[in-house]
Amino acid sequence: MSPHNEQSAVTVLGLGPMGRALAAAFLAAGVRTTVWNRTPGRDDALVAQGAVRAGTAEEAVATSPLTVVCVVNYDASDAVLRRDSVTDALKGRTVVNLSADTPDRSRSTADWADRHGVRYLDGAIMTPTPTIGTPDGVFIHSGDAALYEEHRPVLEKLGGTHTHLGEDIGRAAAYDIALLDIFWTAMTGYMHAVALAKAEGISARELAPFAKGVSSILPSLMDELAAEVDNGTYSGEGNPITSAASTMAHVIHASEAHGIDAGVMRAAEGLVRRVIDEGHGSEGPTRLVELLGRGR
Ligand code: NDP
Asked: Which residue's alpha carbon is at the smallest distance from atom 3 of ligand 1?
């Protein structure tokens, strides 16, 4: 008997580093996997592992009830999916778009899918390629719950944790952008800190153990501050925002003394100053959420 059956067949469109990792994980889990990429030649290793090579995207989507798209963004997934021949081949089949983009792009893609009889789920991948196919992978999904349940067994072959966040198709992308907001501002902060430390004769390796100490404070702080934000309280007990403003000013001063751009910290300090100018200097950092939520 073949190890594969039609229900556990999947097509992967997009064979960048992440698309290749997804296809390899499906194959390793015994799922019949058809692959296609805009630029040919990215599928050789996958084909050697048993993937079916499709000559065109329409041929690829026609071989499986489920297509997973993982390309750079939704301009790219539109360029693949919205060609008439591909859209026709997708009719009655399911697409899960795991490319990263914004919630409004997820919603407009869902409208397009609805108009063309394509069953559509959205999702995002929160962890890097080496985690795919391992327990460390983190996938988030949104859209019709029954449709998600139908395809969950195949999606879970990717390993890791899969969470359906709700029926609003844009919800996975909304989580994704909020989490990317944390990741990229934190990464920029870390790179800036390393540049500043180096200017003071401290190597990145010397700083790293202390940098890890800073990030280990964050998990409990996130829970604590989340409770405050959701309760609408801004307690600055032990952590008034005036104190934050003072230490931020030190970072700006020390950076600029070394000729290092302090623009990121200046932006952060500017927000804190607005809170203080509005008379909330004794309150905590959660007041920033309220300030930002009001818009400019
Ligand atoms: P990229 O984000 O660089 O995407 C590369 C893929 O996009 C290739 O298959 C490329 O095809 C395709 N592509 C780009 N433009 C077009 C287009 N106009 N038409 C058709 N295909 C196009 O690499 P990744 O594979 O790493 O990422 C894919 C997605 O996964 C991204 O949205 C990324 O944010 C997300 N992601 C990636 C992670 C990672 O660790 N790499 C982690 C979490 C999420 P071609 O080969 O022809 O150029």
From this structure: 72
Q: Is residue 273 part of a domain?
A: yes
- Scored b (16 or more CB within 10 A) or e, 186-195 reads eeebbebbbe
Please check whether residues 155 and 247 belong to one and the same domain.
no
> Taking the complete model, does pTM exceed 0.70, yes or no?
yes
Q: How far is the CA of 138 from the centre of ligand 1 (A)?
A: 18
Residue with CA nearest ligand 1 atom 38: 128
Residue 189 within any structural domain of the chain: no
Q: Which of 13, 44, 71 to mutate to test the pocket of ligand 1 (most atoms within 8 A of CB)?
A: 71
Q: What pLDDT score was predicted for residue 238?
A: 80
Site to probe by mutation for ligand 1, drawn from 12, 72, 139 as the one with most ligand atoms within 8 Å of Cβ, is: 72
Report whether pLDDT(3) > 50.
Answer: no
Q: How many domains would you assign to the chain?
A: 2
Report residue 111: phi and psi, to 5°.
Answer: -65, -45
What is the distance, to the nearest Å, from the Cα of residue 163 to the centroid of all Cα atoms in its chain? 13
In a domain, residue 198? The reply is no
Q: Which two tokens stand for residue 294?
A: 């009001």
Residues lining ligand 1, CB < 6 A?
14-19, 37-39, 42, 70-73, 76, 79-80, 99-100, 125, 128-129
* Contact in structure between 8 and 152 (CB atoms under 8 Å): no
pLDDT digits (tens, 9 = 90+) for 215-241: 999 999 999 999 999 998 888 788 899
- Write down which residue in 140, 167, 194 finishes a domain: 167
Residue 263 included in any domain: yes
- Condensed to tens digits (0 to 9), the pLDDT of residues 96-123 reads 999 999 999 999 999 999 999 999 999 9
